[in-house]
C-alpha cells in the first residue's frame, strides 16, 4: 500500500476544500475506518489522499421532542450509551449493539455504515423502519434524502462526488425492535436481520429486512397486514408468510435462500411481538 | 487542518509521528516501531480482539487504525496498564484464576476488560461484562477461567 497524503479537517469547510482536491476516485474517506481500511488495501489503484473525518464537529446526538438527530461520525458505542435511546427507540439500540464488538463500536459510525451500504448491514433496516433521513453536505450545497433513496447496492449510494453524510435524522421515536440471526454473536455478519417499528402518528407498521441482495428492503405488503399496535396471531402469521415469499433472498456462503425465508418468518413475528408489547414512547396506546 | 500532525503518546511517552508512514497501522507502530510486543496480531481484520489497545481510555482495534489518525491522542497498551487501578484489578483476577493457556489472547482480553471497567464502573453486571467481551476470541478455548476471572472482578467490586 504506497503512501498517500493524509488530511484531518476540523471544520466542514476544510473537509469540502479537501474533497475539491484532485479526482474523486483518488480520495478515500475514513470515518471509523472499520471498513475503509479494507478498501484502502484492496484498491488496485492506490488512492492519492485519505481524508479522516475524526476531528469534524459531527460527533453529536440531539433529541428534539420525539425526533433524534445523530451526527454521522458519532461512534456507535456513544450512541448506544445514550440514556434515552434504549427506552425510546429500542430497535435502534438493538441494531447498534448488533454491530461488531465494543472495541469496533468505539470507532465505527452510522455515517460509515450508510457509506458502506452493505446488503447485510444491521443499521440500514432499522433506519428504513424508522423513516430515517440522510443529511448531506457537499461542494454544491446541502440536501436531504430518505434512507430508502440513499442506499442502492453494496458500496453504492446516492452520494455524489464531493459530498459527505453530515447527520441522520429520525423523525419520531417509535416502539420498535431489531432481531438478527448469525453464527457468532459478536464480530460476525447477520444472515438475516428484521427491523420493525410502529408509528404512533401514522398508525402503521414499518417492516424492513437485511441480508438481502442488492440491499435491505421495506415490505409494504407485509406492513399492511398488521392492523393495530398489537396485532393478533393470525395477522402475524399472514405478515410473516407474505414477507418470506416477497423478500428477494439469495444463497451465499453465509446462508441458503430457503433458510433465510424460514428465518425471516420467525424473526418477523418475534420482532413485532417484542415491539408491540412495549408502551409507545408518548404514552399513547 | 493538520496535514502532518506532530505526535501522540504511547504509555505516556511522546512518539514523534514524522517518520511514521501515513499508511502504517497502529498495531505495527506499537509492535514493530516501538517494540511493545504485548499487543498481538491475530487476524488483522477486526475479528479477534488480540490487538486491542486503549485510545483515550477506550478499547480500539489497533489493526483497523491508521497511526496518524490519532495525533494528539493517548494510546495505552497492555504494558502501560501497570499503574492503572482498573488494569491492576483485571490483571490480579486473571492471575488468581489462571485465566490463560498459551496467553496469545490475554493482553486483548485484559485491555478490553479494563476499558469496560473504566467506561461503566460498578454499574455493569458480570453478565453484561461477558456479553461486551464477545469480540475477544481465545483460540485455546480457555473461556471457563476467563469467565471466572470476570466474575471474580465483579464480586470484588465495591
Ligand atoms: C469484524 C467486523 C465486524 C463487523 N460487524 C458488522 C455488523 O455486525 N453489522 C454491520 O452492519 N456492520 C458490521 N461491520 C461493518 C462496519 O464495521 C460497519 O459498517 C461500520 O458502521 C462502518 O463504520 P465506519 O465509521 O468504520 O466506516 P468507514 O470504514 O470509515 O467507512 C465506510 C465507508 O463509508 C464511507 N464514509 C464513511 N463516513 C462517511 C461520511 N460521513 N460521508 C460519506 N461517506 C462516508 C467511507 O468512505 C467508506 O467507503 C463489521 C466490520 C468488521 C471489520
Ligand atoms: S488482530 Fe485486530 S482484531 Fe484480530
Ligand atoms: S490462551 Fe491461547 S488464545 Fe487464549
Series of secondary-structure elements of chain A, N-terminal to C-terminal: EHEHEEEHHHHHHEEHEEEEEEEHHH
Strand-pairing-aware structural class of chain B = alpha+beta
> Order of strands side by side in the largest beta sheet of chain B?
2-1-5-3-4
What composes the largest sheet of chain A? 5 strands, antiparallel
Structure commentary:
The complex is a heterodimer of chains A (about 280) and B (about 160). In chain A, about 35% of the residues lie in helices and about 25% in strands. With about 280 residues, chain A is α+β, with helices and mostly antiparallel strands. Chain A has three domains: about 5-50, 2-Layer Sandwich (Uridine Diphospho-n-acetylenolpyruvylglucosamine Reductase, domain 2), CATH 3.30.43; about 60-170, Uridine Diphospho-n-acetylenolpyruvylglucosamine Reductase, domain 3 (2-Layer Sandwich); about 175-275, Enolase-like, domain 1. In chain A, helix 11 (about 235-245) runs antiparallel to helix 12 (about 255-275). The longest helix of chain A is centred in the C-terminal third of the chain and has 20 residues, at about 255-275. In chain B, strand 3 and strand 4 form a beta hairpin. Mean pLDDT of chain B is about 95; it is low at about 1-5. The N and C termini of chain B lie far apart (about 45 Å). Helices cover about 35% and strands about 10% of the residues of chain B. Chain B has two domains: about 5-80, Beta-grasp domain (Ubiquitin-like (UB roll), Roll); about 85-155, [2Fe-2S]-binding domain (DNA polymerase, domain 1, Orthogonal Bundle). Chain B is of the alpha+beta class. Chain B has a five-stranded mixed β-sheet with strand order 2-1-5-3-4, with helices on one face. The interface of A and B includes residues 3, 5 and 104 of A. The site of flavin-adenine dinucleotide has 31 residues of chain A, from strand 2, helix 2, helix 7 and strand 10.
Amino acid at each position: 500500500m504506497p503512501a498517500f497524503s493524509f488530511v484531518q479537517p476540523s471544520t466542514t469547510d476544510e473537509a469540502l476544500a479537501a474533497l475539491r482536491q484532485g479526482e474523486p476516485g483518488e480520495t478515500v474517506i475514513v470515518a471509523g475506518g472499520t471498513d475503509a481500511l479494507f478498501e484502502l488495501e484492496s484498491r488496485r489503484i492506490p488512492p492519492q489522499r485519505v481524508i479522516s473525518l475524526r476531528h469534524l464537529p459531527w460527533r453529536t446526538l440531539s433529541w428534539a421532542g420525539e425526533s433524534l438527530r445523530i451526527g454521522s461520525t458519532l461512534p456507535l458505542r456513544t450512541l448506544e450509551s445514550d440514556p434515552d435511546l434504549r427506552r425510546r427507540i429500542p430497535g435502534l439500540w438493538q441494531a447498534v449493539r448488533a454491530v461488531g464488538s465494543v472495541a469496533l463500536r468505539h470507532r465505527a459510525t452510522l455515517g460509515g455504515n450508510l457509506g458502506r451500504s452493505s446488503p447485510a448491514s444491521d443499521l440500514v433496516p432499522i433506519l428504513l423502519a424508522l423513516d430515517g433521513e440522510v443529511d448531506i453536505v457537499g461542494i454544491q450545497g446541502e440536501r436531504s434524502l430518505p434512507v430508502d433513496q440513499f442506499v442502492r447496492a453494496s458500496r453504492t449510494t446516492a452520494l455524489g462526488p464531493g459530498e459527505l453524510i453530515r447527520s441522520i435524522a429520525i423523525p419520531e421515536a417509535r416502539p420498535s425492535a431489531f432481531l438478527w440471526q448469525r453464527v457468532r454473536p459478536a464480530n460476525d455478519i447477520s444472515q438475516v436481520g428484521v427491523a420493525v417499528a410502529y408509528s404512533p402518528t401514522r398508525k402503521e407498521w414499518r417492516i424492513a429486512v437485511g441480508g438481502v441482495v442488492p440491499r435491505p428492503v421495506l415490505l409494504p405488503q407485509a406492513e399492511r397486514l398488521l392492523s393495530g399496535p398489537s396485532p393478533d396471531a393470525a395477522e402475524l402469521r399472514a405478515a410473516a408468510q407474505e414477507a418470506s415469499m416477497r423478500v428477494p433472498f439469495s444463497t451465499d456462503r453465509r446462508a441458503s435462500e430457503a433458510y433465510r425465508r424460514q428465518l425471516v418468518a420467525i424473526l418477523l413475528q418475534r420482532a413485532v411481538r417484542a415491539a408491540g408489547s412495549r408502551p409507545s414512547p408518548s404514552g399513547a396506546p | 487542518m493538520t496535514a502532518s500532525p506532530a505526535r501522540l503518546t504511547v504509555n505516556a511517552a511522546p512518539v514523534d509521528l514524522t517518520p511514521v508512514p501515513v499508511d502504517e497501522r497502529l498495531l505495527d507502530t506499537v509492535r514493530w516501531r516501538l517494540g511493545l510486543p504485548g499487543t498481538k496480531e491475530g487476524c488483522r481484520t477486526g475479528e479477534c480482539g488480540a490487538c486491542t489497545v486503549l485510545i483515550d481510555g477506550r478499547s480500539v482495534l489497533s489493526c483497523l487504525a491508521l497511526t496518524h489518525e490519532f495525533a494528539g491522542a493517548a494510546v495505552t497498551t497492555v504494558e502501560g496498564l501497570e499503574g492503572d487501578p482498573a488494569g491492576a484489578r483485571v490483571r490480579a483476577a486473571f492471575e488468581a484464576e489462571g485465566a490463560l493457556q498459551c496467553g496469545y489472547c490475554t493482553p486483548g482480553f485484559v485491555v478490553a476488560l479494563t476499558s469496560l471497567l473504566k467506561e461503566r464502573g460498578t454499574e455493569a453486571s458480570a453478565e453484561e461484562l461477558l456479553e461486551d467481551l464477545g469480540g475477544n476470541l481465545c483460540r485455546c478455548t480457555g473461556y471457563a477461567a476467563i469467565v471466572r476471572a470476570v466474575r471474580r472482578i465483579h464480586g470484588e467490586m465495591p
